[in-house]
Amino acid sequence: MVPNMNSNTKYLECVISKYRDLDELTLLAPIAIYDLSQAVAFSSKQYKQVRGVQANEGSSGLPDELGQYFKSQSLKEQEDIISTKTSSYSINFNYYDGIVQPYTTYKKPLINPDNDEAVGLYVELRKILYTNLKFSILKALNVYDFSVNTNFKKYNLSKREKQVIFLFIHGLTSQEIASVISTAEKKTISKSAIDAVFANQLRIKFDVYTRDGLYDKLINLGFYQVIPQDLMVNIKLPAGHIDVY
């Protein structure tokens, strides 16, 4: 048992040394290496930039607990990756480089080839540009006259209005919007409250008379390209494949 532990420790130190040298020679992607106690053993310069103080060696490397996110969720996920020796790939909406934005997280176990034992965890973060296949197709086919320079701030939208707009243009009904926001905020939001946002606030602000008219105007203005910060923080989505048929 002791020889294996020594071998694993030396192997992890060797891996970290090589990444440290590479990070000095070239600007590595935001990557970190964790030891088996799930503490950061190494983090690249880019990882330190996007994660801040959480990237310091010896820390957990995880975002602060906000909304429905708890560090225990990530710690359990990482424990499973190490014990099962399987990789994980997900899309996250969380703080990245100081602001809430989408990014991918790739995690894989570091395996000592001499004994096939997990010695640590490799984590890589990648900022992604938000896109939606539906709106990309509509834009390519010139179905809408998409605006490219909308000043979203001029509409002075409230937190609730931003949430409703985002969920509405992605196809949710008033009842579904109420359910999503209720879950996100851990309090009951009724369908009638969402209907009131449409009737008494959004239709007036965007000078339209129907939901169809509101939808068209929001798409033309480019609201499909923005995500309300208060709704999307600390959401993790499993990344999957799209099949062609």
Low-pLDDT sequence parts = none
**CATH-derived architecture of the largest domain:** 2-Layer Sandwich
Strand line-up of the largest beta sheet? 2-1-5-4-3-6
Number of helices: 9
Instruction: Give the strand tally.
Output: 6
Instruction: Please give the share of residues in helix.
Output: 40-55%
Task: Walk me through what this model shows.
This protein has 245 residues and is of the alpha+beta class. The chain is built from nine helices and six strands; from the N terminus they run H-E-E-H-H-E-E-E-H-H-H-H-H-H-E. Strands 2-1-5-4-3-6 form a six-stranded antiparallel sheet. The longest helix has 24 residues. It is elongated, with a radius of gyration of 22 Å.
Features:
single chain; 245 residues; alpha+beta; Beta-Lactamase; Arc Repressor Mutant, subunit A; 2 domains; 6-stranded antiparallel sheet; 9 helices; 6 strands; 19% strand; elongated
Summarize the structure.
With 245 residues, the protein is an alpha+beta fold. It has helices at residues 2-25, 45-51, 71-84, 133-140, 159-169, 174-185, 191-205, 211-221, 229-232, and strands spanning 31-34, 40-43, 88-96, 99-112, 117-127, 235-238. The chain folds into two domains: 2-127, Beta-Lactamase; 133-231, Arc Repressor Mutant, subunit A (Orthogonal Bundle), CATH 1.10.10.
